[in-house]
Amino acid sequence: MSRAKLGTAAAFVPSTRSLRVLVRAAAGCTACELYKRGTQTVMGEGPDHAEIMLVGEQPGDREDLEGRPFVGPAGVLLDKALDEAGIDRDRVYITNAVKHFKWRPVGKRRLHERPDRNEIEICKPWLDAEIALVRPACVVAMGATAAMSLLGKRVGVASSRGTARRGLHDAPIVVTFHPSSLLRMTEPEDMDARFAELVMDLQLAERVVAGDLLAS
Question: Which of 15, 27, 169, 199 is spaced 20 to 30 Å from 127 by Cα?
Answer without folding.
Answer: 199
